[in-house]
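Hey,
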Amino acid sequence: MRKAVTPMPPVGSPAPAGAPFDSGVPALVLRLDRNPFHHGTLGAVRTLGRAGVEVHAVVESAASPVTRSRHLRAAHPVPGLLPAAGPAGAAGRGGRGAIGPEETVTLLRRVSERIGRPAVLIAMDDLSAVHTAEAAGRLGDRFLLPAQPPGLPGLLADKAALAAVCAAADIPHPAGLLIAGADDVPGAVRRLGLPLVAKWSRPWLLPAATGLRSTTVVRTPAAVRALCARAGAAGSALLLQRYLPDGPDTDWFFHGCFGGGADPVLLAGGSGRKELSWPPRAGLTAKGRWEHRPELAAAALRLVSHVGYRGILDLDFRRDRATGVLQLLDANPRPGAQFRLFAGSGGAPGGGGPELDVVRALYLDLTGRPVPAHAARPGRVFVAENYALLSALASVRGRGPAVWRRALRAPVPGGGRPGTETAWYAADDPGPFLAMARAWVARGTAKAADRLRPAPTGPSSGPLPVAVPVPSGPGPGPGPAAGAGAGAGPVPHASVPAPATADVAARPR
């Protein structure tokens, strides 16, 4: 029998005693991207759970490291909600990006029935943000979402559409051209030069089975033509952009949560600089530092004012070394994986109150509660341990251990320093770090074994539980084996080994 959706507590009602942010409304962290190493999902679960909020999460499988968090009330694996999107179905349908708009609505309605009452929805990847915004009118009785035009997140996430938005809003953006076919390549090369940055305009549509990356640096016309030949498989048009060379202090980002009525208000956020990335010089933030760049906040405000966006926005910039101008590369209508870098101290100006980040600010805003004053903490550092290690090793290869240590060096909490936020390790929540480390090692071992085998064998898959409640104690512990079928309810928490399909194409930003 299906559980009825109960009425939502009055918006703006006082929080329970001892819960600094909780309004009595649960939160659902949604990620449709099939990436078990997405540390931003874990960051959202932890920041809300530590504030006393009941947190649920949709994940790619019950083996995801985030399911080991003590701050998660229950995990809802996609295969148990949409059996056709499980490991076997995903292989035939392309994996990442295979879940369509209607399937997203079905999935969310099923999760809502399990939660039992309306919840704040936090989309953690572009696919989730685009689908939930488009279906907001059909989900409004079950989830709280920012009020904005339904197609707006898709407009910002579309690389080609963003160029037009930047031109209209007077925001610096690399010159680019949409390519209709191989005949357009010679003209694009003459106009933009080589190398070029090739981007699929709607990367959330890329099927993982194609092996295509959302962004590629191409150095020859032949490489561009090869990508053009695969446009049909990519699901969207190919955009070529002028290449901005990387270098010291060239890569920056801005995270913000915007509320307000006719005029947008920045509720929380900040600007930061990439110090390490993976892949090196062109990937996600492996190590970042909070640094004030007022022009980034100004560009973000112009963007949201121009299009009317509300909610969390993650912007990536690169400084043009020839002009010194910071140019907007990407706009992501959801939290970046390193959003916890911008955790301001509560009770500004002296601090001492609960921390505030963009996810907590969105939760408060959507539940009708005021967002408290908070103080910025420039100099604060964020480190994604697994990717930072890879990036540091690649960056200082052959340059000696002293350089390697400097690459990873960061301030430590205490002594008046702003401190360091680690993506995976937390003293109060060690389970996800241990699960990630096991899965990371297993993935590396499997890759090494594949290189040694003349003919790799396909992964096997078994039944996955429908929901994985997590313990309320101090950390993960042993429990009965998880073996519930797709039609069962929540099953006891159990240690689940990393699946053979952990090698995914998508990476967090």
